[in-house]
Amino acid sequence: MTGRRSADGRRKLGLQGEEFAAEHLVSAGYRIVGRNWRCPRGELDLIAEDEDVIVFIEVRSRRNTGTFGSPEESVDARKQKKVRDTAQYYLYLGKALERKVRFDVITVTFMPEGKFLALNHVKHAF
Predict the structure, then answer these.
(1) Interior CA angle at 7 toward 90 and 74, to 5°?
(2) Do the Cβ atoms of 83 and 76 come closer than 8 Å?
(3) Which domain holds residue 110?
(4) pTM summary value
(5) Residues 125, 79, 13, 15, CA torsion sign
(6) What is the CATH number of the domain that holds 42?
(7) Which residues have CB under 8 Å from 71's CB, separation 6+?
(8) Which of 3, 70, 80, 102 is 20 to 30 A from 54 via CA?
(9) Rounded distance, CA 15 to CA 95, Å?
(10) What is the per-residue pLDDT across 65-116, written as a single tens digit (0 to 9) for each?
(11) Torsion, Cα of 33, 39, 78, 105 (10° steps)
């Protein structure tokens, strides 16, 4: 049962991080057009518009425990390819292949006990 509680805790932390990320984007003038968009190719955490650009945002949340590396490091080449492929499918379905796009990463770090610590928004991350 411990594994189940651990997975539930990670999911809750992830949802909390996505909420902080969405609030950050809205306060910066972005318009959120999609959250947790899923298709057979994968999932897009957040989709937003920044003026005339569609921005696909990968959100990573971590507790600041000193293990597993930084949240930015977890967006490796394999993950980047999956996000790009999923975004391409999203654009295809929406007949928006000609739109300008950008890929950002937002990392949200929490203290070990779960209190918010920091948010970092990396534009043009990949």
Answers:
(1) 55
(2) no
(3) 2-122
(4) 0.88
(5) positive
(6) 3.40.1350.10
(7) 60, 61, 62, 107, 108, 109
(8) 70
(9) 29
(10) 666 667 777 899 999 999 999 999 999 999 999 999 999 999 999 998 889 9
(11) 10
DSSP string, 40-91: TTEEEEEEEEETTEEEEEEEEEEE-SS-S--TGGGS-HHHHHHHHHHHHHHH
Tell me the three state secondary structure of residue 125: coil
Mean pLDDT of the chain: 90
In this predicted structure, what is the pLDDT of residue 68? 67
Instruction: Read off the amino acid at residue 3.
Output: G
Length of the chain measured in residues = 126
85, 41 Cβ separation under 8 angstroms: yes
Number of helices (H), then strands (E), in the chain: 2, 5
Q: How many domains does the chain have?
A: 1
Tell me what percent of the residues of the chain surpass a pLDDT of 90.
74
Q: Find the radius of gyration of the CA atoms of the chain.
A: 15
